[in-house]
Amino acid sequence: MRIDHIGIACHDLEEKIALFERTFELTVVAREVNEEQGVKEAMLHIADGEGGGSYIQLLEPLSADSPVGKFLARRGEGVHHVAFGVPDVSQAMEQIGAKGVRLLDERPRHGSMGSSIAFLHPKDVGGMLTELVQAAEGR
Amino acid sequence: MRIDHIGIACHDLEEKIALFERTFELTVVAREVNEEQGVKEAMLHIADGEGGGSYIQLLEPLSADSPVGKFLARRGEGVHHVAFGVPDVSQAMEQIGAKGVRLLDERPRHGSMGSSIAFLHPKDVGGMLTELVQAAEGR
């Protein structure tokens, strides 16, 4: 339905928030710590769309051995993943899984701003770590 | 105004078009060869937005020594750049350049589907090669 967000890995969340606010005149609409994923993050709103908005998501790892921490050590700062908005994440997982794409999650988990999310294996979608996002009701 | 597109570098354009069409039920709306940038490409439509649409852009290099060819050799397949839609690319270049972000283009050049585009230096925007896009009138 939409490009929900682009997740960008960074070393210093506050510095990058300031950079993106200044450069692109975006505004932070949510900040969260996601212990399960080992990140603290901020969502900067770009536009509204069908079923939810479009955002830049800035991600700072909580530790060096988290997935985003390892990504930074290996690749440096930059695009970590891309997220597509779907109407129903469970249904999308089923449909996409049936096409032979490996899912990194067996069931939906908690994403930013109350969303339900699941990740797809990057090797099965063109080398891009891909997230499916069902936005929370009313977002 | 919007996330215009995510540019994904790949070795085999036709194979990746088939993968994205099958996996995400997207449709190719434009194919082009851009000799200046050394790529052949396809745009897969995701959604419409303010001032233009949102797309996945698949990029296959025309030669190994083109920018996308070198990217593939260094990093493999995956996200090559991210593009933001702006109302006026010349004005956006001026405003963003005035904030100390280096521009890779001195003036707008031709992008996909008749758009006018310019690139920003990835080091100045969080490690992400960033494109500004002014969509062609009526797209």
Automatic annotation (TrEMBL), chains A, B:
The keyword Isomerase applies. One of its GO terms (biological process) is L-methylmalonyl-CoA metabolic process. It is an enzyme of class 5 (isomerase). Keywords: Isomerase, Metal-binding. Residues 2-135 form the VOC domain. Pfam families: Glyoxalase_4. Its EC number is 5.1.99.1. PROSITE patterns: VOC. The keyword Metal-binding applies. One of its GO terms (molecular function) is metal ion binding. Belongs to the methylmalonyl-CoA epimerase family. This is Methylmalonyl-CoA/ethylmalonyl-CoA epimerase. It comes from Nonomuraea dietziae.
